[in-house]
Amino acid sequence: MGIELSAIHYVYLAFIVLIMALLIKRRDTTMICVVGIFTLGLLATETLSGSVSGIFNSFIYATKELMGTIMIISIIVAMSRVLIRTGINETMVSPLTRFIRTPTMAYWGIGIIMMVTSLFFWPSPAVALIGAVLLPVAIRVGLPALGAAVAMNLFGHGIALSGDYIIQGAPKLTADAAGLPVSSVMTASVPLVLVMGLVSTVTAFWLMRRDQRNGTWRDGLVAGKGTGGVLGEDHPASKEDRAAISSRAKKWLAILIPLLFAVDVVAMFLLDLQGGDATALVGGTAVLILIGVTLLAHRNRGLEKVTTYLIEGLTFGFKVFGPVIPIAAFFYLGDAAFKELFGQVLPETSHGIVNDLGVALADVVPLNGIVGAVTLAVTGAITGLDGSGFSGISLAGSIAQLFGTAIGSGTAVLTALGQVAAIWVGGGTLIPWALIPAAAICGVSPFELARRNLKPVLIGLAVTTVVAMFLV
User: What transmembrane ranges does the database entry give (predicted)?
Assistant: First the structure.
């Protein structure tokens, strides 16, 4: 299974190490990513014009890939603004205050609700659905917006997505690559997902409380008002806006709006909608709610106000995503984007820069249970560095099959471990641009959220890998 590594592979790996080091040191990585794109382009095209053009083209590629996420966040923010300014949001969330009374209850409550919701239609739509509803309650009882983002992130993009027991997109990809039935990979992943989830969420909570006690907690807010993204008002609601909807209408709308999203959930089951299709259904529903509430609230000015709210939402979305696009552009080069932008300049046996590095890693280590578990965890994490979480899990499955065959057992466990590592790293808990939905909804810096997640996720991966060694 030999893979020929070129200078491009080593340069890409060097920039990944540099980017991770800068993240740990709490420095911005945008410029380094641009330099990385330029350097890779120069190696690939051997022309100055090709490498310079590659920077812009990679930005366009990343924007296209991220557009669905940008739009859903923007639309949900726009809808949330009109709900806040009319007071519907307060009516909607008031019943939850009975159950969420302390920061601790807010952290675990938001996390568990996020996990359950994400299991049914993946985390990004779940973040958009529940963020606007639960974030005001959490902040009101003293949980920082960054703490809420950590909870939503670890429980949704971590626990729920790495198991993916309802939609089964992740286990199907890894199981097919490993030549196993989906059920065996799902069964093997249960203890690993539980251990990874428990260790990471408990560690994150303990670190948050410790830093708050020591006065070293950083809020990481980008909205500028200390209330999170969807709550960050540029100007307070006017009396006219708040008086535009009667108390009775607010109560009915507070019931109707969650009901409409519940219908979306049912439709996702009945119509078998997943991923982007599920996001589109939620986004379309949010647009209709935005239009309906705005027309009721502003009446004669409704037509103009609909556009105003959409502009506010889009402004917020692109403001948050602006610094993320260059980083996404670099990490996309680790997969299919490199060939699309620079042509077939990698060796013929190449399956993409990131996957090649993972295969090379598997080739140079001895085959036994302990090393197998460590290798699958590291390989999964490396393939997750492109920020998708899903692009490399087929590779994890194929490497797990090789290790399992050589060892004589444990193929399903190794496959599940590679899946968990890849999705926790790349699915949205460590790579800054991948965890943007939770950061955007909560109005915090994605870089600060990535730093806050780093220790809990690495500790969780270490403990989970040790557990896998005993299960192989």
Answer: 6-24, 31-60, 66-84, 105-121, 127-143, 150-168, 188-208, 252-271, 277-297, 309-333, 370-390, 430-447, 454-471
